Amino acid sequence: MSQEKLDTYFQDWQENEALAEEMIPLLGRLYRKYNVVPSLYGRSLINRSVIRILKNHRYVKKVEGVELSVRDTLPMVKAMTELELGPAHIDIGKLGVAFKRSEQDDIRAFLETELADIVGRHADTGMGGEPKDVVLYGFGRIGRLLARILIEKAGGGNLLRLRAIVVRGGGDDLEKRASLLRRDSVHGPFAGTIRVDHENEAIIANGNYIQIIHADSPQDIDYTAYGIDNALVVDNTGKWRDEEGLSQHLASKGAAKVLLTAPGKGDVKNIVHGINHDDIADDDRVISAASCTTNAIVPILKAVNDEFGIVHGHVETVHAYTNDQNLIDNYHKGDRRGRSAALNMVLTETGAAKAVAKALPELSGKLSGNAIRVPTPDVSMAILNLTLDKATDREALNEYLRDMALHSRMQKQIDYVDSPEVVSSDFVGNRHAGIIDAQATIADDRQVVLYAWYDNEFGYSCQVVRILQHMSNVRFVYLPRETR
């Protein structure tokens, strides 16, 4: 290959970098001024680096077979900033591919048609009113990731304001709490700046003033004393899992509703966003976000059941170890969990298979389940061994699941990867509930085996935030609209 040709590749890369740099402030304007959340085939474009934006564009080639570059999307983003758009989630990638396939040449006219529902509606919030106060009760793995996500989403019409974090005990622990938020061994450094207000016992993260409240029980707290009222309390402790125990939060002055980040017991509704979140009634005051595994498998099971029918099946989860296990061999009330999490595969139970029925009643009694805890800190896998009503083959099943991941109403829950080289660490930080590994799919007539990765920390936390948004009447229009 000639040197001139080699230089052309590098010049093209530099030009794309320059265009991506030009795009960043325009994306920020859409988000902060117009409450438009731009993405590219489900990959967020907010607060992303030049390299990440370019990688997201490359992803389109992998999933759609269509080359989409910043040369295609930058004119589209520029046009959007001139249309006085109302609040919405807009997939610029899908619009870009549709525009290329349409063979039209007027981008503005195309967008005015595709985005007709929100063009000229900048003055309409359409998002349920005033911002909602959020309190995190507990600040462990899930609590800190929820804090990161809520801080990241502050502004842009999100209407969820992280106002306080409740932790046990007292003393001068603010620096340590702030440090745990600032640095994470799995998820990396916090994207922004964090300061500590010792005098008022608060953390200021990216300008968000977060009160740290020390308390041993919900009854000890008066949120209104901190200017917090009608708040959503997210219980990350797992200490109480039934309605009676969780209702203790409602005795706290200023608390309105409770969301549990663990499977609920008894009559507590277990919600998997994207599946049964519409079951949340306005007068529901105690809700569960189910478990990470339940969130990972339910959308995939629904997709398969809707198209092929499920007669019965077995769910095996290969799960990263959790803080509940021992670092070294020691007493544990649970079977096998007393053995060192870092040195052993630990066979244990999972309630995820039975919990599926709470979100998908049509699968009640059809699934069994087990779990193996393995020596990795994050990202797990669910293996779904299913007997179907309708026969299929590997190619047809994968193509259907790919379509559901890209073009259905469950696109935020289901992701899809088709690579022979991916491993668990590649999915750290993935925002979907579960990711189909197409290379591993097995299908033989009515017997199929599906392998689904999931970030049991971050992906689950994203699902929790989606439930919070729904409970707060945060409603976005998603464009272009999906038909499935």
From TrEMBL:
Coiled-coil features, chain-numbered ranges: none
MF annotations from Gene Ontology: NAD binding; NADP binding; oxidoreductase activity, acting on the aldehyde or oxo group of donors, NAD or NADP as acceptor
Pfam families named in the record: Gp_dh_C, Gp_dh_N
Domain Glyceraldehyde 3-phosphate dehydrogenase NAD(P) binding intervals: 132-292
Protein's UniProt name: Glyceraldehyde-3-phosphate dehydrogenase
GO biological process, one term: glucose metabolic process
CDD domains: GAPDH_I_C (cd18126), GAPDH_I_N (cd05214)
Keyword Zinc: no
InterPro entries xrefs: GlycerAld/Erythrose_P_DH, GlycerAld_3-P_DH_AS, GlycerAld_3-P_DH_cat, GlycerAld_3-P_DH_NAD(P)-bd, Glyceraldehyde-3-P_DH_1, NAD(P)-bd_dom_sf
Record bears the keyword Nucleotidyltransferase: no
UniProtKB keywords: Oxidoreductase
EC number(s) per entry: 1.2.1.-
Stated family: Belongs to the glyceraldehyde-3-phosphate dehydrogenase family.
SMART domains: Gp_dh_N
